[in-house]
Amino acid sequence: MDVKRFAGTYGINYGRIADNIPSPDEVVRLLKESKIRNVRIYDSDHTVLEAFSGTGLNLVVGLNNGLLKDINSSTDRAMSWVQDNVQAFLPETRIRGIAVGNEVLGGSNNDLYGALLGAMKNVHGALKKLKLDDQIQITTAHSQAVFSNSYPPSSCRFKDDINEFLKPMLEFFQDIGSPFCLNAYPFLAYMGDPENIDVNYALFQSTDGIYDPVKDLHYDNMLDAQIDAAYVALESAGYKKMEVIITETGWASKGDSNEAAATVSNARTYNYNLRKRLAKRKGTPMRPKSILKCYVFALFNENQKTGPTSERNFGLFKPDGSIAYDIGYRGLSSSAASLKDLQARYYLWWF
């Protein structure tokens, strides 16, 4: 069965750690009006799954980190979870993937490292028994913390202390045809070293970029370099043909006093230029024929997230459904399209 899991090149993360965002039904309307067809959520909330029924939107549901040990310990629990949170909503809700855990390897909770692969295998086993494995993909998203070094891209390797968990997982992914999912944030990289990184390079703006002499490749933006660094690490580990998909990338529009790069102007520039880059349907310097796919983070500003102010301000839309800044979307409360909206809609038709 040939199932299209990702329509075009552009998707979005629909996080809901907030008490003031639109209802799932309103969110569906917002997504359809914006012509965003690929969506990731971080759980399997049934009100969301019901709202997506009959919409034609491609959805990836999340099995969160708190469930990993339980699902790892029992094939019966894995089967029950899949039946209750996936099978029960098919085919009306187009669930195309299950993200098992989020940023586990390299994270602070070492206890979960050993549970991740077993949980993924048990969920996949349940899908196989239910004859759903050919239409629903198993993945897990990684942060940059899985790499020991990523600059220049040709030097990137996976950290030694996670290899015993990572390599069997990559072997499993190769067997079942899953991609390597990466959460990549030029915003965070720039904030970590603003003295040595040109903000224009992080924002897809005109810049000299960087040259990687080992691979003889030039990079005019940081996101491409981060992706190719992942390809180098995979190649070094023996998985040269595995695809890299960006499961999170974005730029905060507001931050604390020590987060000077978190501005509306920078967020708009990053996300607008990212859309244009994805509209070109091209790959990276190292993988020019592998068309890049990205899920932007995030749909809304989420007022109940903890951490620095930037964490609550990654949304393309405000809680009332209006745009946080103009990259071509109209939002739920806008009545007329701007010229930029019309231009962006031209681009989006090609996603």
From TrEMBL:
Entry keyword Cell cycle: no
Entries under SUPFAM superfamilies matching the protein: (Trans)glycosidases
Keywords: Glycosidase, Hydrolase, Signal
Catalytic activity: Hydrolysis of (1->3)-beta-D-glucosidic linkages in (1->3)-beta-D-glucans
Family: Belongs to the glycosyl hydrolase 17 family.
GO molecular function: glucan endo-1,3-beta-D-glucosidase activity
GO BP terms, alphabetized: carbohydrate metabolic process
UniProt protein name: glucan endo-1,3-beta-D-glucosidase
Domain of life: Eukaryota
A Pfam entry, by short name: Glyco_hydro_17
Keyword RNA-binding among UniProt keywords: no
Enzyme class: hydrolase
TM segment ranges: none
Known EC number: 3.2.1.39
InterPro entries reported in the protein's UniProt record: GH, Glyco_hydro_17, Glyco_hydro_17_plant
